[in-house]
Amino acid sequence: MNHARARAPKGARQDAARSPGRPPPLGRPHYQKYAVEVHVSAIDGLGVFAAEPVPAAVKIGEIRGEAISVAEARVRATRSARVMIVELSARKAIDFGKSSDPMRYTNHSCRPNAELVIAHGRVEFYALGAIAPGAEITVDYGETHHEGRLRCRCGAPGCRGTL
Question: What is the spatial distance between Cα 163 and Cα 153, in angstroms, rounded to a whole number?
């Protein structure tokens, strides 16, 4: 995931856990609500793909990482070819570079099937529509540190062409 400035939630969303009161399958943290897999992506590098059907408007999962200042985030963004940082506010950011959470591999698309939402200081992903098994999960990064200088490779109809 490239450095992105995430939006606040548009409205209240339901966290539709598949089985209330039941823990997630072994090997999956409780905040990863649906099974996903990481594979090579046609968009860029690695991507995250649905491993089971994901209904519309539900939380897919989230990413956890190192909390840092925005100033530090901007310095780190200049030191790496692949940046995995999200700014939570004008002062706080999270670096996912060392995270083991699979959602960190979510690629950008100009026609995404998921939304990145900042909620309670967390970076969460919600399905915009139903997502079929095998589909790559994508979000619109919005503003990035690339400032329109990086070519977009999403291939979606109506692609903006840059990030």
Answer: 9
